[in-house]
Amino acid sequence: MAARGCGGVWCRVLQRGPGGSCSASRPRRAVACNARGGAVPLGQSGLAPWAAVVGLEIHAQITSNSKLFSGSQVQFAAPPNSLVSFFDASLPGTLPVLNRRCVEATVMTGLALNCTINKKSLFDRKHYFYADLPAGYQITQQRVPIAVNGSLSYSLCKDNKMSQMVTKTVRIKQIQLEQDSGKSLHDDARSQTLIDLNRAEGQLRVDANISVHHPGEPYGVRTEVKNINSIRFLAKAVDYEIQRQIKELENGGTVLNETRAFDSKLGCTVPMRDKEGKQDYRFMPEPNLPPLILYDAKSLPANVNHQQVVNIDWIHERLPDLPSVKRAKLVELYGILPEHSFTLVNEDGLMDFFEDVVKQTQMKPKKVIGWILSDLLSHLKQHSLTAKESPISSFLLADLLNLLENGDISSSAAKQVFEELWKGEGKTPLEIVKEKQLELIQDQEELEQICQAVIDEREKEVMAIKGGNEKVINKLIGLVRKATRGRANPLLVKQILEKKLSE
Amino acid sequence: MLKGYISPYNATVVQKLLDGGAVLLGKTNLDEFAMGSGSTDGVFGPVRNPWSYSRQYKEKIVPRSDSEPENSNWVITGGSSGGSAAAVSAFTCFAALGSDTGGSTRNPAAHCGVVGLKPTYGLISRHGLIPLVNSMDVPGILTRCVDDAAVVLGSLAGHDPKDSTTVQDIFQPFALPSLTDVSKLSIGIPKEYHAPGLSSEILAVWSKAADLFKNAGAKVVEVSLPHTHYSIVCYHVLCTAEVASNMARFDGLEYGHRSDMNKSTESMYAATRREGFSDVVRGRILSGNYFLLKQNYEDYFVKAQKVRRLIANDFVKVFGSGVDILLTPTTLSDAVPYVEFIKEDNRTRSTQDDILTQAANMAGLPAVNVPTALSGRGLPIGLQFIGRSFQEKQLLTVAKWFEKQEMKYLLCIQILQISGYTHHQKDEFQTSSGERC
Asked: What CATH code is assigned to A444-502?
């Protein structure tokens, strides 16, 4: 079966009161932060405040060449049942053999999430009958997983403002290795289900566990919500379920310990059928896999074959920079804003693009970033492209920015050139500038003439400016720009106009 | 359940034999899924012990009544690898493979008068062995003499990357030395193996064997394995739990028997398993699932694992006190007639018959049955040697020495008189090591 790492994440969404101590005489408005950091009233006003507890179970498929316990290959979109070994088909007499790369991947993930890596971890069997589980059990790590007690810091924008970022921490309960199931394809027309034993769908799957309680009281009964297919739906499902539970409890009802499915069309959770009572998985140690022993530099025995052991310290040394470190470096090195570093790191390939441009241009990184984050990124998003697929290479963009920086063109002209470059017709920025005659007018006299012409035309505005309304000069500047088709340096124009108007 | 199923791959042990030039003569009968101690619960019917047709046995039978049909008092082979033991005993092949989880190789070896070796757990690959109890199963070796067993062991033992429970150490095949001086040997006689139900005949043979060692200069001491009497119950819990787990894959979906019931996946599973499994198997699955329930897990499964540790420690202590090999009976009696055997159910029989053999599986130790004598009814009696982990060489060396002693020699001559083979045909039955059996 394909490899799968599974992490448990617990976060508390706390309610925020209006501040100060709790006073019984004053009705308190119970509020909480939603995923976007905005205040959301929990429950009806005047009633006791609620706190929600959310736990996420995340299934992430490990990128490896072969599956976790069998030697069969892993390949995206292979024909159904073409990558199934004897072990995957659960033929009698076959035994699991642990994939080293999967263990390393799990250790790397554990280290990246500040977990304690268990030097000895165990494998277990979790039994249930389902068509996509040929052996009738799944090999997992229920008793002692590879990594435990980690944490992840993340930033939340308050009120949707990137400038107001709050850092929060979420606890990682554990990371365990487990077998993936097969893929089920339901054919309702013929009342049948087809099973593909290559591997399950979806590189990342999430189940959410939600409960609510009054602060100070014990945790409430939790429900599990499945069938969540995106991060956006995850937020919706969690918000909905919190509200549903609160409403239920405030109306005197109870929350059942059940599994619910998220209906993305209706935006709500519904009970899943066929769940009578809780499943007893009859956990049992997996007898065919001895305990997994991991070593570090201290405990590594001498004379051991490097190929035969996994050394935690060796993996630690080779961890790439984590995102938070990358972001901090960007801010320090280039003087960009923290919120900009997020976008750079989060968009695939964008950081490299940015750094390449910076290397090739005289323009300061603080100015370059604007071009990257607004002009380039918006175009990429519009056309669903990644930075690597950009029709404008970092070289071309650097070239363009150099023209701008040297004062050869105005910024509005540069934007026009940008649009032309985007067409990807192979022209250089200089060629486009020449073709469209976008060079800044360097001739002072010519500029003065144009400015004078505008002043002569716009008596009303001139009167307003002379009367003290200074902002109106921007309108004149705009008119000059129009007249020059963007070829006038706005600062220079302003200077000339001001000089003329003060005469 | 696996009727008509042809495995698309060879087990490692089979492949090793084929690679070594062995000729596969056939597959043998057994108790279904290796559950049983008589080889009577197989889909193809019960296995008949070749000794049922030997002159020794026939001479001793007292016909019960005239109305009884001729062949109604044939005896069982023991089990569960009875077919393999019978094949070797009847001279149809040089050696046969079996499995040993609670004695399934040694038990039929004793009843059929052949050598049955249970190797140390982790020495021989289980890849391709349909598991009964993964933590106790080993492939078993059945041959007519100890030297042959050593030869087969030499070609099978060693690390297999496909089986993560095999040890990494490199295995060196060995030839067995011919021991002449046993004065440095210490033989332990565990008193708990004087079990209730042990026939007086076997007790006498056991005693005589101990004396044989003593008279030859070896140190023979009584030892104690105090947790022996817990082993059957412990075994039942662990065995049924693993069985329940291992049998979960037989659902008719990927291979094997599939029921015609197709109203829903679940009903198909249920019908397939009801049709495909015998009562014995289903009984064990139900018990096993019971023990694995969350509310029972601590009280049964975990407790049994703890008891298992105690049983294993008994052996560690004894071997640590200077004892080299343990000598015990293999079975409680000689082979019983089939009509007697089936009067009790499989579970009861297994409980009774496994008692002398399955502690070695609990502890993962190597053990071997050596045919020793004939009973008053003309049927084989064997004795068991249990050795230290991975000390097969020492174990088999001692076994070979014992084999050569007078007791065994008596047995040998009589084997050649099965079904009227006469004295002058003795020369044909030479073993691979060239020694006359």
From this structure: 1.10.10.410
When pLDDT is cut at 50, 70 and 90, the band that residue A44 belongs to is low
pLDDT in tens, B185-220: 999 999 999 998 999 999 999 999 999 999 999 999
Cβ distance B7 to A284 less than 8 Å, yes or no, reads: no
CA-closest candidate to residue B37, choices B141, B110, B117, B115: B110
The Cα–Cα gap between A68 and A74 comes to 10
Q: How confident is the model at residue A161 (pLDDT cuts 50, 70, 90)?
A: low
Please give the residue that has the higher pLDDT: either B64 or B239: B239
The structural domains of chain B, ordered by start, are 12-64+73-419 (3.90.1300.10)
Q: Tell me: the pLDDT tens digits for A466-497?
A: 888 888 888 888 888 888 877 878 788 888 88
Return the higher-pLDDT residue of A311 and A411.
A311
Q: Is B294 on the interface with A (CB under 8 A)?
A: yes
pLDDT at res. A28 = 34
Q: What is the pLDDT of residue A338?
A: 86
- Would you say B430 and B436 are in contact if contact means Cβ atoms under 8 Å apart? yes
Question: Do B249 and A135 count as a contact with CB atoms less than 8 A apart?
Answer: yes
- 8 Å CB contact of A137 and B131: no
Q: Give the per-residue pLDDT at B356.
A: 95
B81 included as an active-site residue: no
Residue B138, C-beta contacts closer than 8 angstroms, at least 6 positions apart: B99, B100, B101, B118, B119, B120, B121, B123, B124, B126, B361
User: What is the maximum span of chain A, computed from C-alpha positions, in angstroms?
Assistant: 100
| B residues 5-24 lying closer than 8 A (beta carbon) to A | 7-9, 11
Lowest mean pLDDT among A151-155, B95-99, B118-122, B364-368: A151-155
pTM: 0.81
Taking contacts as CB-CB distances below 8 angstroms, the residues of chain B near A290 are 164-165
Instruction: Please state, in angstroms and rounded to a whole number, the distance separating the CA atoms of residues B262 and B268.
Output: 5
Spell out the domain ranges in chain A: 51-274, 332-436, 444-502
- B37 among known catalytic residues: no
Cβ burial, residue B138 (10 Å; 0-12/13-18/19+): buried
Inter-chain touch B8–A91, beta carbons under 8 Å: yes
Dig out the tokens for A483 from the structure: 């007249």
